[in-house]
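Severity: low
Component: inverse-folding endpoint
Summary: output formatting inconsistent between runs
Steps to reproduce: submit the following structure tokens with default settings.
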């Protein structure tokens, strides 16, 4: 099994405003690659998905951003 490397792209809302379709504003985006997650440690896909999203959400929030659910 190959490990998963989660990635988070920051500042997309500034570059692609929600209220404007097919509109792109020049803005610096940041792409952060996080620590690999060992696939072999998980017995089913749902657990692995939940872990991956939790790691990505925690990183996103640590940078001062809020998620859609908040």
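Observed output (run 2 of 3):
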């Amino acid at each position: 099994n190959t490990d998963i490397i989660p990635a988070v792209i920051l500042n997309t809302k500034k570059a692609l405003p929600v209220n404007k379709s097919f509109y792109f504003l020049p803005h610096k985006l940041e792409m952060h690659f996080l620590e690999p997650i060992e696939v072999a440690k998980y017995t089913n896909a749902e657990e692995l998905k939940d872990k991956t999203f939790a790691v990505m959400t925690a990183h996103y929030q640590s940078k001062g951003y809020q998620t859609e659910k908040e």
